[in-house]
Amino acid sequence: MKTLITAFVTITMFAATQAAVAIDINNGKSLQQENCMGCHDDGVYSREDRRVTSSDALRAQVQRCETNLNLQWFPEDVDAVIEYLNTSFYKFQ
Ligand code: HEC
Q1: How many Å lie between the centroid of ligand 1 and the Cα of residue 12?
Q2: Of 7, 21, 22, 81, which is most buried, counting CB atoms within 10 Å of its CB?
Q3: Which of 57, 79, 31 is CA-nearest to residue 87?
């Protein structure tokens, strides 16, 4: 019985950890819509002469805009927005 409980607790803790680090694209989408459309709309991510051409550059640019706006996002918010932008527009591997 004790082993069973230990196993259950271990699995539950594992599931909770996984949920905490999972990247939430929908969160990224709402964050982007609420905070990032003031200067440019989302056309800037898909225009022909866009400046961001790698996933490193995408991360750097999202962090630059986020820092400039003093949004004080958590790292998982930054990750969520990057994931949303990459899935919807940039499509870097
Ligand atoms: C204060 C104005 C401002 C706000 C608000 C803003 N940005 Fe920007 N962003 C800029 C400017 C200026 C550029 C450069 C546009 C250009 O090169 O023509 C830019 C460009 C970008 C690019 C690169 C587009 C490309 O060419 O590939 C990304 C990605 C980006 N912003 C993400 C964000 C995100 C994410 C947010 C919200 C956290 C945000 N921006 C909010 C001013 C802003």
Answers
A1: 40
A2: 81
A3: 79
Which ligand 1 atom is nearest residue 71's CA?
Answer: 38
Per-residue pLDDT of 33-91, as tens digits, reads: 999 999 999 999 999 999 999 999 999 999 999 999 999 999 999 999 999 999 999 99
Which residue type occupies 5?
I
Closest atom of ligand 1 to 52 CA is 27
Q: Is there a contact between 45 and 89 (Cβ–Cβ < 8 Å)?
A: yes
Instruction: Report the C-alpha gap between 13 and 6 in whole angstroms.
Output: 11
- On the question of pLDDT at 23 being above 80, the answer is yes
* Nearest C-alpha neighbor of 83 from the set 31, 16, 23: 23
